[in-house]
Amino acid sequence: RLAAPGAAMLRRSLWLCLCLCSCPARGLRIHEYLYFQVLSPGDIRYIFTATPAKDFGGVFNTRYDQIHLVPADPPEACGELNNGVFIQDQIALVERGGCSFLSKTRVIQEHGGRAVIIADNAYDNDSFYIEMIQDSTRRTADIPALFLLGRDGYMIRRSLEQHGLPWAVISIPVNITSIPTYEMMQPPWTFW
What we know:
Residues 1-27 form the signal peptide. By secondary structure, this protein is α/β, with parallel strands linked by helices. The protein has helices spanning 4-20, 84-87, 101-110, 150-163, and strands spanning 34-40, 47-52, 64-71, 91-95, 115-119, 145-148, 168-172. The chain contains four helices and seven strands, in the order αβββαβαββαβ. Mean pLDDT is 85; it is low at 1-31.
């Protein structure tokens, strides 16, 4: 009989194996996920799962080994940002709500951001990915836009606040197929 931590690891490993076999999860296949790892602060040094926007935004042509993930101020990023200077050449963490996903992506692009990660504003969402689609304005965006579960976004922001940090350091994208399952640091609050 397995101890509780071993059983949990086995369940996660089996779930990941099922996902890697291209079984759909909430309408998405594994190749439609993008992964990033928080390197700092250390208490959230996990690999997070995000989904790219369906019909707008760019793709990651470059792997960033250490880039800042800067929470937007204001969090919804529907207009001028108070910390836009810190988003220049970095990746912005934005909260869902207030305007369209495309509008948020364009605001970050206009501030020189390399990409945007939009976290759900439902902080208890730890399993449902929302499909980010084009709005009806016919505008475009060139930078990548990713959707992040609400619980993940909340935990990242909470850690930054607790440590008094203006941003996290991340690596994006991360190729999880090269990481042995037992070494993957997954958020303990999310079931993979």
